[in-house]
Amino acid sequence: MGQECVLIGAPVESGARQPGCRMGPDALRVSGLAQALCDLGLTVTDQGDVAPDPDTPDIPDTPPLYRLRETVAWTRALMPVAERAMAQGFPIFMGGDHALSLGTVAGVAAHAKDAGRPLFVLWLDAHSDFHTPLTTTSGNLHGTPLAYVTGQPGFDAFLKLPATVPAERICLLGLRSVDPAERQILQSLPVAAHDMRGIDEQGIAAPLKAFLQRVADEGGLLHVSFDVDFLEPDIAPAVGTTVPGGTTFREAHLVMELLHDSGLVTSLDLVELNPFLDVRGGTARLMVDLCASLFGRSVFDRPTRPA
């Protein structure tokens, strides 16, 4: 991991109908993300918030697609920002709903292509996000990023990708809500998809270590996209798409600790944090703590908070 962290706010709220995610970047700032990283000896630069591309052409919202033009505008804005940020250090994209990853992953993939390195993506999420505009029944485009970056059909309104991410370089961890159309796409692709039953049976470390070994063997860059609903709702209620049976506090920290130990992660999304649904800022603080674990804070360094 690089020692220069670049914080980039992406207050995207067009990917779903539950309001509140636009407050996510500021909640992470207020919860001390920059200070937590500085305390670990990292240099942190906050570049502020990105705005959607104002030059996006008019695009009709074809039912059931929700706020299509706005999501395209965010994608057009975030793609070049992400590509530039990769050259500046370790970018942390603070969301915002998961539609932001349409742009961030695409931009990181463009950087990886120019660098001559394979890009791998670790998707920590209750959902697979493999819908396309042709398969989604909800019309919520936060469920489409992985279909877009792997080059699936139906994204004619979006920018042509400068580089796609091969499906065999994607690992989904923590799945527990996959729609039939997504399941059909996943079954046709060589994606490593691990649901919570598999994690219950073999633990969370085994599939993650196997994926990290592949990244290391191929000399790849690793983008991690961390959705709040990866976590058990009891410990992380601030998300509009809660699904029971998520990862525990210790499982989530173990994932981050293993990622740190690997030294392979080069960029990060923090998505779907909805402060409007939080309880005394607990989910935002947990996200900050998990991010600190990713950058090397150990259990011995973790502060004790008063009850």
Structure description:
It is built from ten helices and eight strands. It has a single domain (4-299), classed as 3-Layer(aba) Sandwich (Arginase, Chain A), CATH 3.40.800. The protein has helices at residues 24-30, 33-38, 68-88, 101-115, 145-149, 180-187, 196-202, 205-217, 249-262, 282-294, and strands at residues 4-10, 43-49, 90-95, 119-124, 170-175, 192-195, 221-227, 265-271. It is globular, with a radius of gyration of 18 Å. By secondary structure, the protein is α/β, with parallel strands linked by helices. It has an eight-stranded parallel beta sheet with strand order 2-1-3-8-7-4-5-6, sandwiched between helices. The mean pLDDT is 96. Helix 8 (205-217) packs parallel to helix 9 (249-262) and helix 9 (249-262) runs parallel beside helix 10 (282-294).
Q: How many E-type strands?
A: 8
Rounded to an integer, what's the Rg over CA atoms? 18 Å
SSE order, as H and E? EHHEHEHEHEHEHHEHEH
Terminal CA distance: 34 Å
Measured as a percent range, the helix fraction is 25-40%
Low-confidence stretches: none
Strand content: 15-25%
CATH superfamily: Ureohydrolase domain
Average predicted local confidence, pLDDT = 96
Given this structure, which CATH class is correct? Answer: Alpha Beta
CATH topology: Arginase, Chain A
Major β-sheet profile: 8 strands, parallel
Task: Give a quick rundown of the structure.
By secondary structure, the chain is α/β, with parallel strands linked by helices.
